[in-house]
Structure prediction request, 664 residues.
Amino acid sequence: MPELRQNLLTREWVIIAKERARRPEEFKSKKEKKELPEYKKECPFCPGNEKMTPYESFTIQEKKGWKVRVIPNKFPALASEGKRDRHIEGIHRFMSGVGIHEVIIESPLHNLTTALMPVEDVRNILVAYRERYLKILKDERIEMIIIFKNHGESAGTSLEHPHSQLIGTPLVPTMIRYRNEEAMRYFDDTGECVGCKIIKEELTARKRIVWESEYFVAFIPYGAYSPFHTWLFPRRHVSSFGSILDKELEDLASVLKTVLAKLYHGLDDPDFNYCIRSIPSDIGQMDYLHWYISIIPRLTRTAGFELGSGMFINTSVPEESAGFLREMNIPY
Amino acid sequence: MPELRQNLLTREWVIIAKERARRPEEFKSKKEKKELPEYKKECPFCPGNEKMTPYESFTIQEKKGWKVRVIPNKFPALASEGKRDRHIEGIHRFMSGVGIHEVIIESPLHNLTTALMPVEDVRNILVAYRERYLKILKDERIEMIIIFKNHGESAGTSLEHPHSQLIGTPLVPTMIRYRNEEAMRYFDDTGECVGCKIIKEELTARKRIVWESEYFVAFIPYGAYSPFHTWLFPRRHVSSFGSILDKELEDLASVLKTVLAKLYHGLDDPDFNYCIRSIPSDIGQMDYLHWYISIIPRLTRTAGFELGSGMFINTSVPEESAGFLREMNIPY
Prediction:
């Protein structure tokens, strides 16, 4: 019989379709493998083509050239110039679409991907994330910063060159408010941060752990929305990604690389998204909010039921997927 | 500059990416056109193959054979037999996956689609929806009934034979609770049903109307989440789809067919989902809840930003898309 599980963090229920569930290895990507070149003349993100992109807001430079470049998105979803203006006309509320939309070019190499990068390179990407996060936090127009990655077509990108993005929005999205409120209610009811509680339970149960390190724990949540949906939680209770310490950042680089490499080797380079779930800009350290990273392999499609109910049907069993990833050896 | 608009019904904000917006005709489906046969020997939904599917829970029969068949899903997301059991183990809450999962086979013809059906056939589908909705409402294990359609691969189906689905869940999904609460707050603040208010405003503005009839209004919402996202609202304030009257149902058949035909001819048979947004089973007629149908063409992909923020970036302008559909003539 299928099972319904509550995702404690969001309070949303998920259908774990046990009978329809596929074995972990059945989720292997079926996309055609393309051998990509290290350099592509026409790629705007490849070295030598810097003039094809807007000016840099941040760069990590080495003797041989840049390692990471952060640039404004050439086709931004939100405009960086302009005032944050709210308008009300009858029942309609609207505002100027100001914000920040940046692209983090993760490597000079066209064909590299996080899973195959030296840990040092992943660290550089995280340094760029933190740098831009802390800088944009000071922009008074910005209420929320979302850092995310789209890898592969099912994940919403057709650009091959490894990159991620940052969008700063001039308001706090409704979903973020709802989730923070649920975390606050959990804290009010139990006196504990729900994130801290979940980590503690996962480390005791040990059924869904994918990887752990000194400062981070990676696991598949009990109420995972979709196959191989994975969370990376800092052990230390801290609300904002911007507060990550150097030693934690160093450690996170290795954890992120390891988990993505397990997915890469285990499922043949599946398309995926990840995003950093941090707090709104105007919120400081809160006893009830815990930042984390959510990795979402795009192995299935949402359909009418998900749109109609907001609920997900997960056709995998979290414990099985976690076991598969835990045992997946990756070359170093 | 892009614009942020609030979707009044859900209180969620949407980025209308005006500069990145494509012209309505640019959203035309690029999928390869397949000529489908009227009958396919191996299709379990084609007449003559009734034995390949479970027993019917409802049929509309004519002299020549059945017009619509409702059957239990052979691979259900929720099991129809069994008790609704809740369990709490430590921090984990779970329950038995009981519920209803049915398939509505919409026509005996393998290659028909709602957009091309005689209105009479669409009426039969709606009759089946109402029939099953009212019947399942009496199942005490069921808290919410979602009726939905997946058309095409991007919408989550690979089955060609025209069909839709019904899932009855043993709990009320969190998203539904949130949305109903927002509607209640709107009512408490203004004394009006937000649905009634939106219809009134759309009929005055006339900028986003796609089609209107005696009992229904079809329009693209001011804060549409995605290109050609369309709402069909009954003019009469009524909370439950199950309360639809015969004359309204007759009228809805023609409106649904018309809107889907405009999409079919205007965008070359795009993949789409639709769902009926009704109320939880334990809620009766409420002054603040208004049922409706949401049609969501699957023309773009959600990526890391949407997953991270819960916000959508709409790369079309609702007024332009509505104008395009409004003026699209369809053969009758």
Residues 231 and 294 of chain B are 5 Å apart (CA to CA). Chain B has a mean pLDDT of 96. The domain at 44-81+95-327 of chain B is CATH 3.30.428.10 (HIT family, subunit A). DSSP finds six helices and 15 strands in chain B.
